[in-house]
Design brief:
Blueprint lengths: L1 H19 L12 H4 L9 E5 L1 H12 L3 H9 L4 H7 L2 E5 L3
Parallel strand pairs: 1-2
């Protein structure tokens, strides 16, 4: 169960990250920033968003997944609206 796993490991992740911070200004590249609760110590948050089709192609190529597997993985993540509502800034990634 993913929820049980997250409840078990996120406190340790948060503790490890906090123990590694040794100055006032730090940039975190944290895929589980909100899930772990580390966002509570952040002054500002930034999300980089891309269209679903772009994300789908990148996941299939990067992880060698089928389209169905990639869509399943994408559905497990938070929605664009979550990031728009919970981050200070959103950057829209445009693939040309």
């Amino acid at each position: 169960n993913t929820e049980l796993l997250n409840k078990t490991i996120f406190p340790f992740i948060k503790e490890l990250v906090l123990s590694e911070i040794d100055c006032d200004k730090v940039l975190l590249d944290a895929p589980t920033l909100f899930e772990s609760g580390i966002n509570s110590i952040c002054f500002k948050t930034v999300a980089v968003l891309a269209d679903e089709g772009v994300r789908l192609k990148r996941i299939i190529k990067r992880d060698n997944l089928t389209e169905a597997e990639a869509k399943l993985r994408m559905s497990a993540g938070k929605s664009d609206n979550f990031y728009k509502e919970n981050t200070k800034y959103c950057i829209k990634y445009e693939c040309k």
